[in-house]
Amino acid sequence: MTDPTLSGPGSRALEGSPEQIAGELRLERQTDEGAQELRRTKEVVLAGGPWPELDDQDSTMLINMGPQHPSTHGVLRIMLELDSEVVIQAKPVVGYLHTGMEKTGEELTYVQGATNVTRMDYASPLSNELVFSLAVENLLGVEVPPRAMWMRMMLVELNRISSHLLFQATNGMDLGAVSMMLYGWREREEVLRFLERVTGLRMNHNFIRPGGLAADLTDGWQEDVLNVCDLVEEGVQDYDDLLSGNPIWLERTVGIGKITTEQALALGATGPILRSTGFAWDLRKSQPYLPYDEVDFDVIYTTNGDVFDRYRIRLYEILESVKIVRQCVDRMPLGDYRVQDLKVTPPPRARIDESMEALIHHFKLFTEGFKVPPGETYVAVESPRGEIGCYLVSDGSGKPVRLHIRGPSFYNLQSMAPMMEGSMVADGVAIISSVDPIMGEVDR
Amino acid sequence: MADDTPREDGPEDDAEPVPAPPSDEVAAAVLERFPDSVFHDSHGQAVVYVARASWYELARFLRDEQQFTMCLDVTAVDHLLDAGRVDIAGVDYERFEVVANFISHPRNRRIRAIVQVTPAEPSVASITPVYPGINFAEREVFDLYGIAFDGHPDLTRILMPDDWVGHPLRKDDSPARIPVTFKEDNPSR
């Protein structure tokens, strides 16, 4: 700062005595000094006597980003230690959306449980329902019919598409590509419209339940799904044309927020973050759960581990999900969409009018729920954000002793710290966006 | 579910005096290294119940010698009000259990470790120095269950406010702790 021509626009060399300058620039000087004095420690302030001069060279400041910052995707707060514009340390602070859903889960029966867990990761609610239902079925020893499995797979993949489209939209918005936001939401709405037609709700579907699904697919669903697939594929092509070669986009994303495989593994990061470091790990391939081993798709991975790679992985995963959905349309088996076990599955509505037993079963199922044998299990599936796990403990009653969801965002957030170190604050926004945290499942 | 171990239903029902030999190779290695631990096949998933003293060493063993590349999750369970619990020979149940799930990417297998924690001394060694990614999870257990993790670098509340009293996921923690004041209750009005 010794050469005034180097200190940037808006600075000028002043003439006159220091008193004159101080008079002219009183406000500015006061603000500056006040800000400087804030950096003094409590010990120095309380000790009395003359305060020592501050060393401008190695002074840093602490800045709170969030929890109301528009680019923090909800109520994420990040404490940044800054050296002017460069992030030295970043510490995510969570808990602002804590609503005690795991506690609530202990008060709800297994029938009601899906209603609770679906609200955790609100961008991909069906993954939560799926992992909860699989855990309950594992404890019950129940295997759902093939049609239920294929329906689940198709719906979860559609949900992955909508979740990744949401990411594309918000990621574009965070980096200044506002048209991307509109396009992403436009296509996402088509997916949600189909999910609404099938499940009755755009989000928080409560559709995948222990024992199967809530209802069968609607008439003419094949045509609807294929329309959505076409629209999404067209959209992805547009986004690719719009962003992937865009010099501004590349400037903002390539080489930003780098993370290595070792760091990602050590910090428990899963999903696109881990895959962006060159580690092709996807539970759908490595530990298949639904009939994922019967469909043809690829695990997308890249090797740079930067913001651009995480954007690209999610973009191409949309196409892989479309591939799976198309195969589901072709190969959807006929049959039951839920297990025909009267202790787990409510009887059809028509049976209630004519059968006393059906009425009793229906009543008992929705008042006290079904009993699950004592035991504990951990079931994991690949959600759009990584491994979502459900640790479920039963004591033989109608309510779980413990319902714990391993939210992938909760762990992925920790990988934000090494990504941010040494980057600029504006790049921090790109990094937060590329981690794609959903605070609902972080705080639960 | 996706484990390589054979699926056996119902070994938890028959209470055998001698623990069954582990059908899982990692569990067998853990039992060899930590002789006081117990293997249990929980719905086809390998579970080892280990002594509290060997919790940290177990994490080191899994990471350094068994290629367990990631600790997925640490959580806890409060068994205070349990109606029933699976009888496993050799496991002395306590009120709290701390549960950790590990995954080995190169070997493509999982293992779960469970340690019993008494309410009188609610603490266990932190495995954050071994698996840094478990930092938040251990803070969550500390926050919601009041179980301390010795050696954790930053053991503070994470989900609840810093000045919160109590640990909400304990079964004896009342969910409506804050009394509601109605206008009629206030004698000054």
Explain how this protein is built.
The complex is a heterodimer of chains A (444) and B (189). Chain A is mainly alpha-helical and 444 residues long. Chain A has two domains: 1-45, no CATH class; 101-443, Cytochrome-c3 Hydrogenase, chain B (Orthogonal Bundle). In chain A, 50% of the residues lie in helices and 11% in strands. In chain A, the strands form three sheets. Chain A has a three-stranded antiparallel β-sheet. In chain A, strand 6 and strand 7 form a beta hairpin. The longest helix of chain A is centred in the middle third of the chain and has 29 residues, at 146-174. Chain B has a single domain, classed as Beta Polymerase, domain 2, CATH 3.30.460.80. Chain B has helices at 25-33, 55-65, 135-145; strands spanning 38-42, 45-50, 70-78, 96-104, 109-117, 123-125, 148-150. Chain B has 189 residues and is of the alpha/beta class. A five-stranded mixed β-sheet of chain B has the order 1-2-5-4-3.
